[in-house]
Design a protein that fits this description.
5 helices, 0% strand
Length: 113
């Protein structure tokens, strides 16, 4: 559930995370799937943080090669990427990949502190 903090607090709902920024990018169709390599730096910059400030990353990997490219390009720590398994391991439900990623990540961060 995405809500304003004031609404969540008024209803007694826990605040598990904060949306600081997001980025929308386009990449050529012949390299479909590498959008995170372009979008993540932009979103991190808008939030005023760097890749080293991130404790865990849920990277949608429709194909392993796309994930490997994005991890290498971004310089991500493999131990921080999809720590509970990503779309290849957990599945990537049509129409709710983002919701699955956010729910997985928020609960993981809550468990690990």
């Amino acid at each position: 559930l995405l809500a304003r903090r004031s609404v969540a607090e008024a209803r007694g709902l826990p605040v598990m995370g904060v949306l600081r920024s997001f980025a929308v990018v386009g990449v050529p169709p012949d390299v479909m799937g590498i959008g995170p390599a372009v979008a993540i730096p932009r979103a991190l910059s808008m939030a005023g943080i760097g890749v080293r400030d991130v404790d865990a990353v849920e990277l949608n990997e429709a194909f392993a090669s796309q994930a490997a490219y994005c991890i290498a390009t971004l310089g991500l720590d493999n131990d921080k990427v999809n720590p509970l398994g990503g779309a290849i391991a957990l599945g990537h439900p049509l129409g709710c990949t983002g919701a699955r990623q956010v729910a997985t990540l928020l609960h993981h961060l809550q468990r690990t502190g």
